[in-house]
Amino acid sequence: MNVNQSVPPVPSFGQPQPVYPGYHQSSYGGQSGSTAPTIPYGAYNGPVPGYQQTPPQGMSRAPPSSGAPPASTAQAPCGQAAYGQFGQGDVQNGPSSTVQMQRLPGSQPFGSPLAPVGNQPAVLQPYGPPPTSAQVTAQLSGMQISGAVAPAPPSSGLGYGPPTSLASASGSFPNSASGGPRLPSMTGPLLPGQSFGGPSVSQPNHVSSPPPQALPPGTQMTGPLGPLPPMHSPQQPGYQPQQNGSFGPARGPQPNYGSPYPAAPTFGSQSGPQPLPPKRLDPDAIPSPQLSELPPQQKTRHRIDPDAIPSPIQVIEDDRNNRGTEPFVTGVRGQVPPLVTTNFLVKDQGNASPRYIRCTSYNIPCTSDMAKQAQVPLAAVIKPLARLPPEEASPYVVDHGESGPLRCNRCKAYMCPFMQFIEGGRRFQCCFCSCINDVPPQYFQHLDHTGKRVDAYDRPELSLGSYEFLATVDYCKNNKFPSPPAFIFMIDVSYNAIRTGLVRLLCEELKSLLDFLPREGGAEESAIRVGFVTYNKVLHFYNVKSSLAQPQMMVVSDVADMFVPLLDGFLVNVNESRAVITSLLDQIPEMFADTRETETVFVPVIQAGMEALKAAECAGKLFLFHTSLPIAEAPGKLKNRDDRKLINTDKEKTLFQPQTGAYQTLAKECVAQGCCVDLFLFPNQYVDVATLSVVPQLTGGSVYKYACFQVENDQERFLSDLRRDVQKVVGFDAVMRVRTSTGIRAVDFFGAFYMSNTTDVELAGLDGDKTVTVEFKHDDRLNEESGALLQCALLYTSCAGQRRLRIHNLALNCCTQLADLYRNCETDTLINYMAKFAYRGVLNSPVKAVRDTLITQCAQILACYRKNCASPSSAGQLILPECMKLLPVYLNCVLKSDVLQPGAEITTDDRAYVRQLVTSMDVAETNVFFYPRLLPLTKSPIESTTEPPAVRASEERLSNGDMYLLENGLNLFLWVGASVQQGVVQSLFSVSSFSQITSGLSVLPVLDNPLSKKVRGLIDSLRAQRSRYMKLIVVKQEDKLEMLFKHFLVEDKSLSGGASYVDFLCHMHKEIRQLLS
Ligand SMILES: [Zn+2]
Fold first, then answer.
1. Using one digit for the tens of pLDDT, what is the confidence trace for 711-752?
2. CA-angle at 766, arms to 762 and 771, nearest 5°
3. Cα–ligand 1 centroid distance for 712 (angstroms)
4. Is the pTM of this model over 0.85?
């Protein structure tokens, strides 16, 4: 029987086993009983003193108000563009201090607010005569990263000295503008072995050298960045010494590269003045076989041909073509899965699907010395409850009856396909700790001639990488099976929430949304109970018991000592209490319609929800809809401490830290209760996301932020997120433990959770979008033959109240040769880990130090490869491992992200928001977040239903005759080139010319023509792929909104001082060479 097919999901496996009396598992991880706090609940049977009860019938139309008139805070303008929230308000106000930028044809460097305006490339051309074609060819071929398994080039000696520095070629030296006439090829990378300054020899064969995809996997990727000629080339006496970039935008004094290399201590920092106007070469004047094939607008202005450095688009396309057609079968240890950007099906044959676990490397060095040498982080990104495509079955649920799941007596690992049965099947040896365990009689089975149990393929836990066990009562808090969880909706009804229409919109939506609470399997209705609270500076609880004719409100104004004024009737079944709930949701917007209360509390609200769950003895989730900085007198009261002057100082970290410890303390209590908090923020100004997101972050919840919320502009986005959030399947009251085979162990964890010890990841709630990243370190030598094993066990309460264990197993290879490590790495996962590591680092270290750490680590990784794995070659060549050839470009995107290098337009709240979002992103999300997808719209045939192939995220790739969609998982732009055909404009926007298109438009008109249908369909499909709704923003070329858009063209230099891809690659090369010398 093939367990992967045709077996009904739930029970057929693992028939309930008879009780084995001698085998008794005490608890999950041996300690669940003790970790669960046994909190005696107070008697809440009668009315509690301290609250004011409104008359039993009907409700007060005017809740208590402090009488404060709408303060100025209420009308505070939304001056700052919010992250992922570039609404109309943002459009009008725009980024501040923006010099009108006009786009130059071709490559307009991003970081050039003072760029000369106009289409006058000749004016911008400070250089001497255009190079000869032979020289350019030489540069291009020298840059050809795809130069295949580069034969070790002659290390030196064809007429030029040892290469100096790629950095000099990167245009990052000061004084660039003052240079005299130069021959562009002077510092351009040369083909290895080619004579510099000698006769110009055309090298067309190098231009057509094999593309990277032709390499066998793991082949040494020796794309030479080309040895560089000396700065002061004796062969070129007629030219001034080249101090600066001879390709790409030559720049004035570069604050961002603080000092000239090699010291370069301030690389990436961003204090100081903005860059001076760029001066560039005119590539149009450079004939070259490669360039002439490009459309004019794509012609490069860089001396390093961007087409010759590793392209994310190419790598993604190659993987799709090579690996997207066959299912990924998990039977073989240490297989590197297809990239996250490839669509593929998974067949579980003994290892967890990459949808659940992805590793930075699938081949781990045997010793810690090797691991230290390579500096490649050993980490797994785990998404225990990942949603699967419809074609793949959910994990089977195994029921071992009262005996519970079978585990190793010593290390408590769960039965899995790697356990070794011995002695005819009477015992098994643990694959994690080698302990010999007895097989309980009811689990006994004979072995076949290979030593395998004959029932191995009938039992998920013996044949699959992922499966679930029904947990016994021993795995439950207080040794009691859990009650079904509850959802509590807690709605800010202060002036801001009412004024924007939020409260009315939300209450209307909840009436229908409550029919879609998560259900288990084929259940008729959800087991989840619901409750409602509204609040401003006091809290209003509602009794919505089904027997009532009208809901009843109880007001608690003593927020300093929060309690729940009612038990009976607070948490109810939706169907039973539908009439009362509907009545309540109708009344709430009316009751508070005239409120003048602007102040809110926050901590007491969560406290109240948590106490309510505690009183009901269940886990659950709070949905908080909140608008403002909680300044009312109450625990957790905050003040506005936003201070942009702290950016780039040692105190910058305080902007990411919570203001007070009250939030952590509260979060801890929530975790103990299994109370997960999802926070929907609707701020008009600073609300201190860093502090408010502490509880969601530590309880496994989510934060959503809608700056300057207006119903007209933002309701689609908010309601879409809300529906998804309410409906998504959640595991409650969860504990996750990652066990490893001897030799490595989990040492560090990243994500939205709480840890009270060093091994157990506690999650009040965990949904299918959240990941936990785990880092491993050696504590002993590993063995090539036995490899390394991971087992992730997640104990959780399902949304129906069932206690379950989900198990994921993964076997990895181990190596004694570093080359094997580098051949089996996954760069996307590495970047996920490195981003999370860095984003946590900013809590404790200056961002500059965090950036430097990343750069150093990346250089060490690549230098180690170069030293130990690459074939000998000239030091002037940049040699990247095939699996890591995108590491520099992706790392650069992390370095210049808003958290690590903020631009002027990004708010403190936006940074804190993004920081916590990234913390629980999976690999696919970080991939597109850091390197957005840019899709041309009119290039592919109109009838094509597939997604158009992406282009690289650089302005050079934009054609002004085309339109592009850009998305990064949070933002979605439609960029319209100024020369787009009139017919196209008409078909898509229903206006007759480019100038009539409304900039900032967020909805495309629904028109009945193929182009309109195609573009709208594509937008829908992009949205469907992401966990949050992406609001569309139409950006016109040369419009001021284009600034926002350009922020996402991550291969270009950024306004905040982030390096371009080419510049960063050169810098990385320099760092590597320093490490090697
Ligand atoms: Zn064991």
1. 999 999 999 999 999 999 899 999 999 999 999 999 999 999
2. 90
3. 58
4. no
